[in-house]
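tool=predict chain=A
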Amino acid sequence: MSNERLVWLFKRHLDKLTTPEEEQELFRLIDLPENEPVIRQVMQEAWNEFSPQHPPFTPAEGDRMLRNITRERRRSGWTNGRIWIAAASVTVLIAVAAIMFHRTQPVTISPITQVAPTVQDVAPGSNKAVLTLADGSTVTLDSTGQQVIRQGGVAIRQQGGRLQYDNAATTGAPAYNVLATPRGGQFRITLPDGTGVWLNAASSLRYPTAFTGTDRTVELDGEAYFEVAADRRLFHVKARGMEVTVFGTRFNIMAYADEQLVKTTLVEGKVKVAGKTTANILEPGQQARLAPGGELSVVPVNTADELAWKNGWFVFQDADIATVMRQLSRWYNVEVSYEGPVSKELFSGKIGRTLTLSQVLQGLAQSNVHSRMEEGKRIIILP
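tool=predict ok
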């Protein structure tokens, strides 16, 4: 029973949910020598949860780090329990805040702890968007808003970073609204049919206030994840020359104007993806890619990587620095320029979307990507 209680308290501590009384109980349990194996196990589980594919250091290196923390804390007179809490917290902090970046040619990168933001810094993106109604009026949305927006007979409810349309029957021609996120913003919307859509930064979705016809059609610019509500009517997404047709399924579409490819990734169900001249049926785990010339191809992908943005991460696999910086520029609302030739090296890794920009840039510097920031709104990549 004590082990179960210890694991429960430890996980609450990592989530910063413990009360002062629970903290004291946790310290007492950790101070018991027989509980050390349990602590190591729960630390390892937490570590694996944050970085199962790209651990920034080996178990041996992790043990050395823990020993160093233990030795340092004992100099300050901490109890064993407080030493283990500090060590565990630092380990998980590194897992969350680390930029586990490496070149495709094997290079050892030291783990990067979270550092204090510089005076000149940029906060990560947040829940914010602009809703444009059919009459052209606009409503600014953010993570704190609680309101009901009336449009004819339609009620649009905002609860923080989410917008929801009442699924009420309407007559006559439907009105069209546009939900647009700025650079540095994201937002979630539930459409009139119950379909859930998560909009990434610098994206917009045009949709009717009611689906009254024989099918359901929306238009996307940018990136969004869809969980389409089951319905006898087909659901269509039009995005920069690609059209995706589904019944009920989960998928992601990336269709930014500054990206070379338009990509649809299927997570669950089945969809038909059409370009100008060809069409393909996707199975879960496949991605359709539409090239500028209209060529449509299908490749297998890791769907978790493709949806990482929705879950608070940037994940890159063999990406050049320009690809990396395009994603960062959208999320932090900054411009990027290059001084000298652009590196052709490819990178793989994982970056937390909750980091400040200065923390991200310091992490990239560990992978030999050097930069400077001007006036908080421009990043210059140095040769």
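Confidence is low (pLDDT under 50) at residues 50-59, 90-100, 105-117. Helices lie at 2-14, 20-31, 36-50, 59-75, 80-97, 303-306, 321-332, 357-365.
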